[in-house]
Amino acid sequence: MSVAVRILLVDDHPLVRAGFHRLLQADEEIEIVAEADNGLEAFSYYKDLQPDLVLMDLSMPTDAESPETTTNINGGLEAIRRIISYDSNARVLVLTVMESEPFPAHVIQAGARGYLTKRCAPEELLHAVHEVYAGRSYLSESIRDKLGPTFGDASPLAKLTKRETQIFSLLAEGYSVSQVAEEMFLSPKTVRAHRTNILRKLELSNNSELVHLAIRYGIVQA
Fold first, then answer.
1. Which of 21, 105, 123 is nearest to 58 (CA)?
2. pLDDT for the residue numbered 144
3. Residue 103 near residue 73, CB atoms below 8 Å
4. What pLDDT is recorded for position 62?
5. Helix or strand or coil: residue 7?
6. What's the pLDDT score for residue 69?
7. Predicted local distance difference test score (pLDDT) of residue 151
8. Residue 18 in 3-state DSSP?
9. What angle do CA 20, 23, 26 make, to 5 degrees?
């Protein structure tokens, strides 16, 4: 019998984790060694257990102390960066509902080896796990079909830097400038400057237009 792929499963929704746990464990070559529901816990488990692969959602709290309202893409991106900073050879496969750019590009830039959407078939998930474990990268076919050959330029959001994307997401979720500043450990003046740049780059006039754009690209729900 071949050696099992040891997986750390990360998602802040217990029912979702349970479903993926059952699906993955049905494969005799896969073993779930731990589950985490926030970015900080994921990083801690990674250091302690050294799993072969991390399968994680993108939208989650940064840590267990964060209230539910702080659940956003920053939690997942920060966890990826911490894990990759600790181990540059870490194999991270993202499984998320976020399908539009710039999230796939930012996830890959952060160091993840693969990107799947939660609409994927079970067979595709298992295939992606084995591909990433083997040292190869994997991008969901639905992502490839949506983005086409101009990966990274499929939406106006691709114009934003990583930090601007984080601030854009928080503003779209209804955060005030002061709340964004507190969440990201920035000064309100810095956040306002970033907000001005974001509106300019996206050719928007106000927060209302920003929210509508975020809904259009599936970053927040209407």
1. 105
2. 65
3. yes
4. 66
5. strand
6. 42
7. 47
8. helix
9. 145
Cβ atoms within 10 Å of 29's Cβ, excluding its own? 14
Cα–Cα dist 102/147, whole Å: 10
Rg (CA), the chain: 17
> What is the identity of the amino acid at 46?
Y
Beta strands in the chain (DSSP E): 5-10, 30-36, 53-56, 92-96, 114-117, 138-139
Would the CA dihedral through 159, 161, 162, 168 be positive or negative?
negative
Do the strands 138-139 and 92-96 form a parallel or antiparallel pair, or are they unpaired? Answer: unpaired
φ, ψ for residue 117, nearest 5 deg: -100, 155
The pTM of the whole model exceeds 0.90? no
Edge-to-edge strand list for the sheet holding 92-96: 30-36, 5-10, 53-56, 92-96, 114-117, 138-139
What is each CA distance from 111 to 8, 21, 197, 199, 215, in whole angstroms?
16, 24, 26, 28, 27
Domains and CATH numbers, the chain: 5-147 (3.40.50.2300), 156-216 (1.10.10.10)
At residue 32, the pLDDT reads 96
Integer Cα distance of 222 and 210 in angstroms: 13
Give every residue of the chain whose pLDDT is below 50, as ranges: 1, 67-71, 149-154
Strands 114-117 and 138-139 turn out to be parallel
